[in-house]
Structures are given as C-alpha cells and as structure tokens.
Queue: 3 jobs
Job 1
Amino acid sequence: MSDSPIYKMVNKRYLLALSIIFVLLLGHYFSYQWILEEDSRLHNELITGSELLDNWSRASFLLYFWEYKDRVITRQKIERQMAVIDSLCSEGRGEQQGLFSPIKEQSKQLLNSIHHFAGQNFPSEWAFKLQKQNILHKTEGLTFSISRHIFTIQSQIEAHKMSAEKLSLILLIAELIFLQLILIFLLRPVARKTDALFRKLEREKEEAVNANNAKSLYLSTMSHEIRTPLNGVLAMTDLLMETDLSFEQRDYLGIIQASGRDLLSVISDILDFSRLESNQLELMEMNFSLKQLLEKVLENFEDEARDKGIQLMYYSEPEVPEYITGDPKRLSQILVNLLSNALKFTRDGEIFIRTSIQSGENDNNEILFAVSDTGMGIPEDRLESLFQPFKQIRNSVEKRFEGTGLGLALSARLVKLMSGSIWVESEINKGSTFYFSIPLRTDGQMAPPRRPLPAVDEDVTLPEEPLVHAPETTATEGMHILLAEDNTINQRLMERLMERIGYKLDIARDGREAVEMARKKRYNIIFMDLQMPELDGLQATRQILSEAPENKPFIIAMTANVSQEDRDLCLQAGMVDYIAKPISLEKVKEMISRFEK
C-alpha cells in the first residue's frame, strides 16, 4: 500500500493540508494571545487610574480640611496618603507606554509641591490659605485629568473588545475558507482519483468474476466433452468384459477400466474444485445412515486393500447417532479422498476409521472423524501445505505418487463448506491420522427420506423411487423407449445395452427429431441428453410434454454435466429423474425397472 500512487498522493496532500491548518491555528493562537495581552494592559491601566483617582480624591479631601491651627496632625495624614500615591506612581517606572504615564508625572510634580507646602512655616494664616488654595486647584485639575483618562481607557476597552470580536470572526472565516480550499484543491482530486480507482477495481472485479464464471463454464463444458467419449470407453469395456475372453485379455481390459475410472475421478475433482472456487457448489440436506455410508465407502476399497494385505476397519462410539442430517455424497467424497491417500501411502498394516462426538463452538456437538493409517508418515515441514491445491508429497527416493494433488485440498474446502475443520497428525514411519469435524445435526428420523436429483455429474447411487410420482402406464402397450442423443458412440452404446436388457430402442439424433418422433409414436420412457443441436434437452422436454396426451412419457435426463442450476432446470422442465454418465448396464436396468408397471 505504501508504494501505491494513490497512497503517495494522499500522503503528500495530507501533509500539505496539515501544514496549512497548523499555520492557520498558529496565527489564530498568536492573535488571541495579543488580544489577551492588550486587554490585560488596558485593564491594568484602568485599575491604576482608578486607584490614583481614589487616592487623589482622599488627598484633596485632607487638604481641603487642613486648617492653619492643626497643621501637624493633618500633615501626617497627608504624608501617609502621598506615600500611597507615590507608590502607585512608582509602579512600572520603566514602562515606555501607557496612557497614565503623563498623569504619573503630573502626580509626581504635585507631590513635590505638596511636600514643599507641608514643610513651610507660613508667617500668617492668610499666606497658608492662599498657598493651600493654589494646591487644591492643581489637585482638582489632576483629578479631572485622571477621570478623563479613565473614560478614555474605558472607551478603548470597548473598542478593543469589538475589534477582538471582529478579528476572531475574520480569522474563523479565513480558516473555514482555507479548509474549503483544502477540500476543493487538495482532497477533492484525491477523492476523484480514489473514486476512479474504485470504479476501476469494480470493473476488474466484475471482469474477474466473469472470467471465473467463464472458466467454470469452460471446465463444465470440457468435462462434458471429455466424459462423453469416456462414457463410451467404460461402457463398451463393461460390455466386452461380459464376452468370452482369455485371461490376458481380461487383465488388459481390467487395466483399461481402472485407468478410465481414475481419469473420471480426476475430471470430477477438477470440476468440483472449480465450483468451490466460484462458490457454485451447494450442499444437499437429507437424513441418512452414517453406518451405511461408512460401510459403502469401505466397500469401494476392499479389493485394493486385500491385494496390498491391508486391513480396513471402522468403529463408531456408542453416542454417535446412526442417522444424521447433511450431504452424504460430499461426506463420502471426503472419506474416499482420505482413504485413497491412506491406501496410497500404506504398504502394510491397517487403516482405521473412527467416529465420535465432541463439544464444539457455542457448546454445539460435533461429529469427529479420524482416518488413521500405518503408512510412511508425513514430514513435519510439509504439514502446513498439505491442504493446498496441487501439492504432492515425495517419498524417500523422490518418486511422486499418482494424483493431481487436489484430493486433500478439495476435502478441506468441502469440510469448510460444512462449517467444520480439518487437521492432521503424523509421525514418520509410524503413520498419519487425518481428523475432520462437522456440526452434528439430526432431525429425529429413523430412515433417510427420498433423495432429490444429484447435484453433480459423478456416478451416484440413485433413489429407490422417481423424483415425482409418475402416471400409470398401460401394460398392454408394451415398453417403447426413445433415446435423444447426438453422439454416435453413445447411440451405439445404448443400443447394445438395450439389447442386453431385451428392449428395442428408437434413436433421435437431436431434440427437434425427438419431438417429431414423440408426435408420431407414444413412448413410455425417453432418455434425453441435455446438450444437443437444433433443440436442447430442456426445450425438447417442454415441447414433448406440452403436446403429449394424458399418459405423458417419463423423460429422464442423461448427461455428463449437471450442476445444481441444471438440476433445478430439469425438474422445472418436467423431467422425472436423472442418469449420470458414464452409463452402465446396471444403471439402465435399474432406471427402466422403476418405470415399468
């Protein structure tokens, strides 16, 4: 941030603005100090003048009643009063300014005259009175001058007060004007540039979001394009495995099948990770049996574990409920990734899954999963980066194990999506234990409810009943099945699968042809691919159902690319179920059996 142009400009203009404001405040401070000093000086002058006037008035009173006969007594009183006046005149002797400086000089001169008068011996009472009258006249003139100066000072104080108010108002207005100028010429350009930068960032963010969505769409499309031929490879391999083969041929086909499934897993991981990055992956909510889920997950690895001589086990603590609420598919995906890694890094021994209940945040219970192995372990310096995407751990001879490095990263993102946490403990040559916890939720049901359409494009266990209650079919009409598919390989594959089951299959090469064929013939089941030329699967479904009589066909989505949004669109279009590619014989048989009377 400190190196950015906007920061440098803001910092420079901010310092300039602070300097200007500081100068203004400093000027205001000194002007205020000058006002205070001038005000104090004038008040001091006023106090001095008032004291002089008061003391000269007393001295004048004493002089007026000084009689020739009691000169000694009155003289002592006058001298004490003159001492006070002399003290007042002596204060601030070194001052070069002040309205009372001339008055003080006159007071000094008059004091000298009074001292001289008091020290004389008058030959007669008439001479005494004549001299006293002269001094009284001078005293009256001095008191009049002091009174006039006091009035002048009071006028100056009023004028100074008004001037100070005007000066403060002028300084305040000047400060406001300068602040306005600072806002206009210093801060407004910064605000404009900041606004322009913000708008630029908004555009870049929008472009980044669009690019990310385009990437997700591209990956989704590529997934469909890759899975479509892969579907043909795996399905044809399944069909070929059921023919008469030599041991060597069957072994080769097994390798092809395993490689195809591994490729399918890699494609699914990449697609899921892309959805997680773009926040497009949503969790399902359903009640399911945790025990059945664990058994199913372990069943998938039984053959591989048996070949390596590794024992697979699981144990659930008594307090763990059998039925919980959540997304069983994503929970299975996490456990599959952890078990797959455990098998990959374990040469012998055992792999153990344990579930228990622990207290989480806000005293909410969490279900804790622990997947332990007796493998080679993970170096401590690699633990922090273990859940980062595209990270793989090398063994002692620097041979990389297979995989994309996405499994653990994908598991970590899924656990986080479930509001849980994941961590690992490991010791070299003794094994590793991966822990993850998710909030425990139950709804009290003793059996899982009927499951909605799968949200992703992987091989899943389909529900025991269709998604919607389908209308009755007439048994005497027989089973008429239509396939709407533009890919030639998939067409041939479905034909072979239907021949194995014992059904004849009609084929439409695109959505428009499927609509035309549905107009001419009543079909019981239509397998509808979603991505086709002319009319796509959703458009064709809507048109077929709108034109069909009361006994509408059961339209089943069949594609390699179905997101949560696509799933909702399938339901809205009127489709009753979904079959995921790659397609197997068992999937097709199970699907058809659900819609036969």
Note: Residues 125-241 form the longest helix (117 residues).
Job 2
Amino acid sequence: MPELNFKGKEFVFNHHLAVPHRPLVPDANKSIGEPRLDGNLIINGDNLHALKSLLPMYAGKVDCIFIDPPYNTGNEGWCYNDNVNSPMMQQWLSENPIGIEDGLRHDKWCAMMWPRLRLLHELLAETGSIFISIDHNEAHHLRMMLDSIFGAECFIAAIAWQKRTSPEARKKLGPAFDTIYVYAKSKADLNLAKLERSVEQEEEFSNTDNDPNGPWTSTDMTAQNPDPSKRKDQQYRIELPTGEFVEPPPGRCWSMLEPEYLRLKIEGRIWFGANGTARPRIKTYLNGSEGISSWTWWPNNEVGHNQEAKKEILEILGSENPFDYPKPVRLISRILALATKPNSIILDSFAGSATTAHAVLAANNKGGDRRFILIECENYADTLTAERVRRVINGYSFQGTQREELLKQSLTFSDLKKADKLLDHIASIENLEGQRFDKIEKKVKDGELTVEGVKAITEKTEGLGGSFTYCTLGEAIDMDRMLTGETLPSFEALGALLFHMATNEAIDPAKVVEQDGHGYLGESPAFHVWLIYKPELDFLKSREAALTLAKAKALAEAKPGKKHLVFAPAKFVSQKLLDEEKVSVEFAPLPWALYRVERG
C-alpha cells in the first residue's frame, strides 16, 4: 500500500504514547447540573492531552466521532505546538504561526494530526465510526493518514457536503463542497442506520390497487449481469398476468432466485403494472419500510450550509462569532441519525462553535440519552463554546424573526406537470406546521422553491434541557515529581490510569470502591484489579501501603473466581509464598518506585 511520508513523521509516529496523563478537573461554576465525568463534557485544553486524559474512562467506548480540524488554508494562523523532543520539531515551534508562505505547512499539519488520529482510533468503539470534514488543501494527505491508522479496508465513504448556496463571484471556479471522510473501527461490525423519510418522500407511496398492507412503492427487480454465462439461475422466464412471458433485459438478470420470486408473488408483493403487462417490480410498503439509504452527495437543502450555520450562532450568541466556516446543526444531525443510537457517546475534539453538542441535545429532545464530549483548546472554550451550550440548554433571549426551512427543492419541468401534487404537498406542510409559526412563507427564486416557517421572537427561545460538566486539564502525573512528593494524584485519577494501562480497557467509575487507601478498580477478562494507595507521603512510607499475605488473602476472598492484580508501592510477601498458599494474587509495583520515599 502506498505510504504517506512527511517531515517529522519519525518523531510523531508514536508520540501519543509519550503524552503524559493529565486528569480532568471539573469546574462546577462553569457547568450545568452536578459535575460528573461520565456525563456530557466540555474540556478546555490542548486536544492531544485531553484525548490522552479520556483514555482511562473512554477507550473503546466512543460510538461516533466528528471532527472539523483546521483546513490548513494558510490563512488560519494555527500553531504547531506539540512538545516533541526533537531539535527539528523545536525549530518548527519558533516559526509559528503557520502561514501561506510556509513551505512546510503541509508537513506540520500532518505532524499535528497524526498523534491525534492515533488517540481517536483508541477511543473509538469496535462498532463506531469517525467523520472528518476537510477541504482540498489536505484531503489527499488526510485520506492516506486514515488509511494508515484506521486501515484502508475500514474506509466507508467520502461524502461531498454542499457547503455553499452559490458560487463565489471572485473565483472563476469556486469550491462548492467539503469532503467528509467516513471510516469504521471495524467495517464488519459497523451498522449505519437508514434515514427517516420526509413528508415529501412518504407521499411517493400510494395504494393504486387497494393493497390491504397499505401504501407502497415499487423498485426494480433486475440486477446488472453483463456476462450471460454467469448467474444463470437468475435468468428464468416470468409469466405475466396476461399470459405473456418476459425475460430480464440484455445485460441484466433478475435480482433474486425463482423460489424467492414465487414466494413474493404469492404474498402479493410483485407489481406488474396497472394493466398487468409491465416487467415485474417489487413492492415496498410504507409501514414496513426501515427508512431510506443515504448516499455520498449531501446537498445543502437537506443538511444546511455555512450561511445557515452563521445565522444559528448569531441568533444564539449575538454578534460574537469568530468562526468563518461553522457547521450547521442539520449537518451534524444527519451524522447522528446515521451513526448513533439513543445511548451513544459522541466525541468532537475540535469543538469550535459547539454545533456537535447542539445537535446531540436536539436529538435527545426527540428521545434518547446520547452523551457528548467536546474538546476546545482556545480561550473562547468558556465564553463561546460552552456558552452556546448553556443557552441551548436553558433557552436564550432573542428579539427578531426566526425562520425555519420546511421545504427546499429545485423546480423542474416535471414538477410543473405535477403542480397539483406539489401544491397539495405545500398545503400539508402548512396544516402540519402552521401552529408553530406566525406565518408560512413560500417563494421561488432562481428556479428553487423554498417554504419557511416564520415566527417573531420578543422574549426567550425555549431551551432543549440537559446538563454538562466543564473541565480543565490538571497537572500531568509526573513520576519524578511523585518520588519527591511534590505531586501526588488522587486515588481516582491514578486508579483510572493504572486500570487502563493494565487491561487496555476503560474503567467504569461505578465499579470503583475505595476505603482508607485500599480500593477495587474493576475487572478485565483476566483479572480483578486493585490499588493500595493514598496521595499522602506518610501513608506511602507506612506498612499499610504494602501488600501482605493477609491482605492478599482478604482480596482473593472478596472477589473469587479470577486472578487478582494488585498495584501497591511495595510488598511484604513473596510470589512463591502466595503460590504455595494458593492465593491467586499477582503483585504489580506502581510504575514508579514510590516506596523509595521511605529511604529519603
């Protein structure tokens, strides 16, 4: 497989392993609801460090990731600031911010993205998927990195999202779309959902033959088969109700074997046209339809555009909007509809204007308990990112006119021939949605029909409800500083880190039990995991911090059935004695010689 090479790759290839663990520190004053690390999170801090801090609790648990990283246009002013121990990389730091004249800006972008993608891969569940929005500046480099990290076999799609509503006048050939790459953690385990049908799509179903199963639509019963020597068992003759026989057209075959066709015919699910003379088609009933399949063209009339996203932020936050190309809620809502379930965890590590959180809260408002995790490194994480989420949850003051797009479609000559049906569809929208708005506006401009609900707001927009915990990143767990007693992490922070290191799994905070420096961290398929630790030097110097035979027996009896892995600063019992006493306990010294503080 072709391999992407960039300057500095050898230094960042495994850099994510060297990133220190920094515990998440909740800030109750900036949160909504009781602070908790297993609920919605907004994290202010470098996203590389924040992703590493999420591993102990969320490794392999995130169901859907959406990120909108810097596009590296040369005009963004983003900085490469990862602390990689290399003279070359340190030289790059002195040359920031990265601009259009920087000949290494593409190398720096790849070096910035590589370790973050490695950590995102670790956080993603086996059944999960990642969606990454990008433009032409780095799309080719990103695709090759994703092939290397996620595996080329895990590529799902390259979606074209129509981000604009019209061409840029100052460009002869302006960009109309961004690419959204979709990869799975495991393609075999991925199960994307179908989309709900719109009112317009449901009207495509009818019941011209009074079928007792209700409205239906028909689909082609043939499949491609350019080689007549193949699929011979799908090239049988079919008798029409008129007594005539038909065969598949040239280059095609029937889409099913004859026994399956005969079963559907008996069930009344084959349609031969109103006069019984048409080639057979398969009936799909509205009441049994799972929805519609998505494809890789996402037009802005379905999922929104940049201008719509700016308008959303303006309505919620007022004039404060530093984002040139924010994403609309409808775009993220489409991703959630495809890739999440009602209890999914969704991660956005380039959170920006918090559209992902807004979309999650809107989805939950219709049913479900999805959780979001946002990471934003800029200083507007509180005043803009989190503030938008606060206002979406609680409601916000707004004076002016709110518009909601209810229908948008290009008009064709075929639409004019079916004008009565189109007018009936508009009337059904007015009947269904009219009570929510002051008026329904209908207009045609540049060959496009738009139907909008218009409502005057003079007080407050109703909130969607919900909660979140605002976090910053604490001091890194530093082994050398622990030895001197300068920095001692909490039992919870150290326990989560050790459990992940020992099992490569995420810890479940609900299973952690700690009492007076002795705690149970949880279980893996092989072990029950324990920790003897207090963030106090006097305790760490005492005999209470060491594993003894009596403690080992007590732990083994408390949780029978598996081996026990016990982290402790020291032990006063040999493994040989434990084996002789048939105590299924294995001692694991803490990753640093904490017990040496007794000698100091």
Note: Residues 469 and 538 are 33 Å apart (CA to CA).
Job 3
Amino acid sequence: MLAYLAIAAFVTAGLWPSPGTRALAVNPADQTLTEWFLAQGARFWTGDLSLVSDRMNSPEGINLLANATNLLSGIVLAPVTFLFGAPVSFAVLVAANLAGTASGWYLLFARGFRLHRAGAAAGGLFCGFAPAMLSQSNSHLHITAQILIPLIVYCVLRLTRAQTPVRTGVALGLLIALQLFAGEEVLFLTALTLALLTLSYAVVGWQQLRAALRPLGIGLGVAAGLAIVLLGYPLWVQFAGRQSVPNGLFPPSYFSADLASYLAYSPYSLAGSEESVRLAPNATEMNTFLGWPLLLVVAACTGYLFQSAYVRAALVTGLIAAGLSFGPEIVVGGERTGVAGPYVLLEGLPVVDGALPSRFALILVPLIAGLLALTVHEAMQAADLSRYVMTGGIALALVPLLPVQLGTVSRPEVPGFFSAGHWEKCVRPGGVLVPVPLPTPAAPEPLRWATAANVAFGVPEGFFIGPYGAEGRAAMGVYSQPTAALLHEVHQKGTVPVIGPPEREQAQRDARYWNASCITLGPSTFHDELKLTLDGLYGQGERIAGVWVWRV
C-alpha cells in the first residue's frame, strides 16, 4: 500500500510544487470546475446542505447532482480545503483516488478472496493505475473515486457466504448512499457489473449461485430499502428537482470506443505515445487502451483457468462490456464501418442512454485484475513450469502499462483581492459578486476567484450542466444577460462599445437580476478595454488589492 502511495505521488508530482499555480495540462478547465466543487462540498460543515446551489449561475443556481460534483470528496477533504485551499485538496484527491483504489482492491483480493499476496498486489496495481484510471485522473475525479467499490464488492461477497446478511445489507446500503455522492456513474457501472456477473453465474455456475440466493436476496433487500430511504429525496432532486435535466449532454456516437484502441497503448503508459490519442474521443477518455500483450495474457489466463466459474462469468461480462463500449456503430482505426454495435439495444432507455459508451470499458479493469490475481494465485500453487510461465507473462504484460507522470502547466495566481479576503469589503454575506470576465464553459478561470474564497459568494453564469437547451434539455452553461453578452464581446474582440443611457439602464437591470453586490475586473485579455466599458456602465471603479471594483 505504501508502494501504491509512492506511485500515486510520482504520477501527480507536477502538481505538488505549487498546486495553486499548476494545472493538469490535458484538462485544466475541468480542474477549475472540480476545485470549485470541492470548495462547495466543504461548505457542508458550515451548514450548507443544498443540493441546488446558488453559488454558481446566480440567481437561478445549479443542480449539484445533475453535475459531477464530488460532494463526498469535498466533505471529507474540507479540513485540507479550509487550511490550504481547494487546489491542494484537488492534488490530494487525484493521488488518493489512485492509491486508495489500488489498496482497496489489494485488500479485497488478499483478505476477502484469500488470494496469494503477489497476485493481490498485481491486481490492486492494475485496478488503481490502469490506463483508464490515469486518463480519467485528468480532472474526472468522480470517475476515479473508486475507493468504496472494493468495500461494496466485499459486502456482496459476504452475502454470498451467508455472513450476517442483515448487518451486511445495512453496511451495503450505507456504502451505496456514500458512493452516489462520491461518483454516481461508477456506482451505476458497479451495479451493472455485479448484475451481469450474477446472471452469468446463473448459467455457468448455478450450483454455486443457488446456495447463495437466500442470504443474497435478504442482504440486497435490506440494502435496497435503506438506500431508497437515504437517497429517495436526493434522486428526486437530481431527476425532477429545480435545475434538473431530462437527458445526457453528449451523443453516444461521439464518446464511443475504437476497436483498434484495445490493442494500443495510451500516452499515460510507459510504452505509449501521443499518436494513440487519435483512437480516442479525447485524451481524458482513453478507457480501452490495454495493449495487445495484455490481451494475449488475458486470453492465456482465461484458458488456464477456464474451469473456474468466476473466469467464465467474467468472460461473458467482459465481452458484454467491451461490446457496449463501441457505441451505436463499430469504428475501426477511426473509420466508421456501418455495423451497429450492441449499444443500440440501450438507446432510448431513460437514464442509461445518457451514459458515455466508452466508459463501459471501465468494467474490464477489475474483471481483468481479478483474473490476473487468480492466475498468479493458482500458478504459485503449481509445481511445474506453468508457475513461471504464467507469472512471468503477467509481469511482462504489465510493465509496458506502468503509469507515467501526468503533464502539468502553469496558471495565473489568484488575485489577492479574493485570496486575502478583501472581497468581504464589497459583498454582503451570501451575496453575489460578478467577476469580469464572467466564467463560461469555454473560459471558467474566474471560478477560481470564488474558489479561493471557499465559495462564500455567488457568481453569475459559470461552467455546469443545466436545462438551457431547446425545450429545457441539457446544455453546458447558460445564455448571457445583455450586459454579460456585451462584456463577453469586449473580452473576445477588444473593441470598446458606445455606452449610452440605454446600456447603463440595462446594466443596472442586469445587476439587480443577478442580485449583485459588486462587480470586479481581474487580470484578463483586453483588460483596459473592459475597464473602460465597465466605467461607462457603472461609473468610475476603485482599485483594491489587484482588481478593479464597482459597487452596485
């Protein structure tokens, strides 16, 4: 487990020298948003239990559960956030998710399934540091938040062994509730995996499954009942509450896996290169890049242990998951084949059709890890040559997949007006501050200013999923008020508009709509042009701790 922690520290080393002024090179915009969510989650300890927050997109707010908000992580890391800032919490979370996931699976393999520790170590390493985990570590921390998943699987394992089904069911229900707030998509994939494994066992290992049905049914019933009680209201807020959305944001055809990507190495692996990104939707969704040597080893291990009911059930489950990852149409080497993929069977299903197809490949990670751990366990018991052939082959297949450091870039320091608390001079408690430029999905940088103040004030617009598409469907961000649109244009073109009474009256109306206490201009492109525009709209600003301020 210390080795896993050391690897995680190495992978995230680029963030540690100065988390406040370093960002992940691949996905800095999502990092900005994740840090804001971590600060929002920390507000739990101040009594803010909101599931619809008015601290972004003021005054309408955002539905936190309709977004990947890392609420549980924000609550747990609140002491770090309050003492050192959300950027430090972000760096800690990136590393902790990797090391914690690896450690959890190691303990499950070694103690829950009682496998040889060498096999458990290899399985844990793959679960925590698979190429998919490194790819998703680029700010998709709701996906890498898998520390509770081995505990969930352990509870199911206890149920199959008829070990205190009621108490275990209670523990499982609590873990399900916690995981929903840590990473709901991972919870969905876990439930799907366990359901497919159970159905596969019904076909290939019925005798083993039949003996476990009664305690499994009791425990799952208790878990489901408790989870419904705990999650009924949050799920209602997510799917029917204020600022909820009726659909997924992205079309499944865009986030589908390329068949050729399974044979390739990702740039997050020792043997990978940047060229392989062309086989993925983008650099954060490289979920399928296992490499042909590992696939050969998986085939060999499957043949070696084919009499095992787990191996046969995992084979069926893995093939289904891989098939779903291709999306509605099979793509090979970037070329669409016109052949429909199994995912077409899910199209139109409520909630499920909002999933990103390539993420179904995440199911393969623990299945393969379990296969590798079990193979090492069996090989270590053997007295013939297979002991060395199988363990050596697994080691050789895993070495090219060892992780490399995540790339980082520099980013501006947050103005002292926000980091040193000067904002309190112009914003009443719980009020709204309008940062200029206003944060948008394409340029969310000003959200960092609110994050530095632990989200103590609200901001208009922002980077979020909300019901602002056609007919109330999901969209990224919100349409701009007239004054915001004017300022966005100045920020993009650098042209100072003509300001007259109509523009000043509209600026006052928009300030009242936002319920704004003050407007601030921080570092930005076309700074001088924005300053002249704001002076024309709101009168002469005053300079405070590195920013211009207009009280409204």
Note: The chain has a mean pLDDT of 95.
